[in-house]
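fold-stage: in
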Amino acid sequence: MLDTTITLVGNLVEDPEHRTTTNGASVCSFRLASTPRRFDRSENRWVDGATSHRLYHSSGSSPYDVP
């Protein structure tokens, strides 16, 4: 089976929640906040964009790879 690796960069908003569904599948849910940055050459400084908060769910064998 081919697995896809995804790297998420940001700050955890709260502790990840590990749980098991009624059929025995492992699931991890977590919220991540990230803020994009770009360099403004006209002002010679870094500028932050709008912070976004996302909810992610991971299932299968990968939930235990979440911090």
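fold-stage: in (second)
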Amino acid sequence: MTSPQQTYETSTETTDERLKVAARCRECGGIYSAWLFADDTVQPIGRKDGCRCGASAFEAISK
């Protein structure tokens, strides 16, 4: 099993399609590691159903 090739730039990981960022839940303020996609979609890593509070809207707080 191989993983997608990634390049490293200072403290962030990038791939061709996504950037690893810190993200905040817009409802409760919970902080997660997340993927930021080219279309500005933010997806918490390992949380396909969204935040533990039930919300699914996140904002990137780092890049």
